Every structure is written in C-alpha cells, then in structure tokens.
C-alpha cells in the first residue's frame, strides 16, 4: 500500500504510544510527567537470536506474576501515562496471561505497545490486538528466509514471522487513519548479515504504512557476535543512504547526524523501564540495578513490585538522568543537535562503566555512536 508523498511531506511518521517527538519529551520532563512505562513480562523465547541480550546473559526462565503486572499498570494509569510498552526480556506472547495483560492495559485507558517476533500471532490474536488498540512492533531482520533463519537461530523462523506479520496486516494494522500515526512497526537489528538489504526493508516499511525501527548490536552485550558488528563508517553510510531515500522518495526529513536512524531517543526524559525482577531503570541499557553504587543496605532500592514508580521517579539518580542534557561532556555538550538529541545515553553509560567510570560520569560522556 503506497502512501502519497503529499500526505507525508515534512512530517515524521511514528508508532503510536512508542514515538514521542523531542518537544513532547522535553515538555513532559519539565512538567514532571511520564508518557510511557516499559516493562518486561518474561525471559522465555521461541527464538535463539545470536545477538540477543537475554540469551547471552543466560538468565533463568522467569515470568512476572499477574498481580505485579497489575500493580505497575494501575500506578501507570494513576500517573496518567499514555502507553505501556511491553519490550525486552523475552517473547511476551509466551506469557501465560498475555491477553489478560493487554485487556488490563486497554481497560485502564492506556495504549498497549508490544514488541514481539510475531511468530505466535494468529489471525484471531491479531484481531484481538487490533480491537484493543495495540501498537505492534514486529521483529523482522530479513526478507530472505536463509538470512532470517540464521539470525534467529531457529529453522522456519522466516515462515513463522511472515505469517504473523501477514495476520497483523490483514487485521488492519497497516491501514492507519493518519499516515503519520502508525500502529504497526518493524524492528530490525542492523548487522553484517543483513546490511545489504536494509534499504529493501526500509522501502517495504514505508510502502506499507509500517514504522521502521533500526537497532544496533551493543558490542559489550555478549560474546561471539564480532562477525555481526558493523563499523562506524558502515553505520553512518547506512544512515546517509536511508536519509536520502526518505527525502527523495517519501518526503520525510530528519537529522542524519544523531546516533539513531530517522529519530532521536529522549526516553530518559519521559519514560521508565521495569525489568522482569521489578527493578526500575531510566531505560533498558542504563542498568542502574546492577551497579553497587546505587545499592542501599546491599540491595537496589528502586523496585516497582515492592516500592513504587513514583518513588524512583523522584529519586536522585533518575532526576539526574532526566536532566542529563545539562551535564553532558565532550562533543555532546556543544553539539548543534543538543536541543533535540542527547545521544544514546544507554550506550554511553555501558561504555563508561566498562572503562571504569562512576555511573554519573558514564552517563554524561559523549555519545559513543556518533564517532570519535
């Protein structure tokens, strides 16, 4: 389904409940308001992706109890957030009460956003998700069976993913009322195996009213992925090519300098991340809970299942993370993009910790994805 250039000219498409522009992010931060809560439901998965953080961390299979999920969603509703994003950890559709959780989010007046490999999406489930106003981000690393199966680590992954994606499209997910407010996204991890087809994936998304979301492999996340990593020049070359494609074919205009392709990430300003253990982070990759610097009496004190999201939001580490644009160092502190970009703070944090910096020092170093 092609979307006319005239309808999209000068606007940036986004996935409802997931994409928030810099103006929204800054305003939410200044008004001390959360726009979204992200939560892991489980660590189990039906794929064995080579680059997966959960797989390489060798976490034991876990599933968040429904009462704990309800506690988080109830508090999120009380805080007037716009969306609950189910991402990270594992394949959420494997949670024993997945549909009950979606219903709870919807009935609470919030937008459910689901990150999934889509393999378990039947036509019936797709209809249920559509009726419950879910925004769905499907994992598609390749449009070629051999490449997809190899990256997913499971034979037949391509067939299953494409079947699920087909069911979502048939349910109406790629027919948005507003071509710039999308309900279906495709997330692909850029790597050496698929870099030559990412432009094909990009066109596929743009032509079918699908939000394209590119992720990169964090080199410190797990071992055995060196052959998949892209060089800085490869990443920037890809970014420039996609920038040209969007400008010349679809009328989209975005800043090509920022570390993320076709967008910025300011989620520290407006969102909080809840792990499968209930521990709260500014984002998935700023793993405060794993550093003794933040512990009190031998444990991490910010937990959504035991304490509250509000408690963490008002705590000094999270206030510091939300205000990080005031403390940035190096090239980020003087960058022309600073009004709408603070780089990838998660990547900076993890890189800084690996270098032996304190958490606050790590959080404010220059973005490690924008080059030396």
Low-confidence residue ranges: 1-10
Q: What is the number of beta strands?
A: 10
> What number is the mean pLDDT?
91
Distance between the termini: 41 Å
Tags for this entry?
single chain, 11% strand, 372 residues, two-stranded parallel ribbon, eight-stranded mixed beta sheet, alpha/beta
Notes on the protein architecture:
- There is one protein chain.
- This protein is α/β, with parallel strands linked by helices and 372 residues long.
- The chain is built from 15 helices and ten strands.
- The protein has an eight-stranded mixed β-sheet. A two-stranded parallel ribbon has the order 1-6.
- α6 (123-131) crosses α8 (157-171) and α9 runs parallel beside α10.
What's this entry about, in short?
The chain is an alpha/beta fold.
Strand and helix map with partners:
Blueprint lengths: L4 H4 L5 E2 L6 H9 L5 E4 L13 H5 L8 H13 L4 E4 L11 H10 L3 E6 L6 H9 L3 E5 L5 H8 L4 H15 L9 E2 L1 E7 L7 H10 L3 E6 L15 H19 L16 H4 E4 L5 E2 L27 H5 L2 H7 L22 H10 L4 H6 L8
Parallel strand pairs: 1-6, 2-3, 2-9, 3-4, 4-5, 5-7, 7-8
Antiparallel strand pairs: 9-10
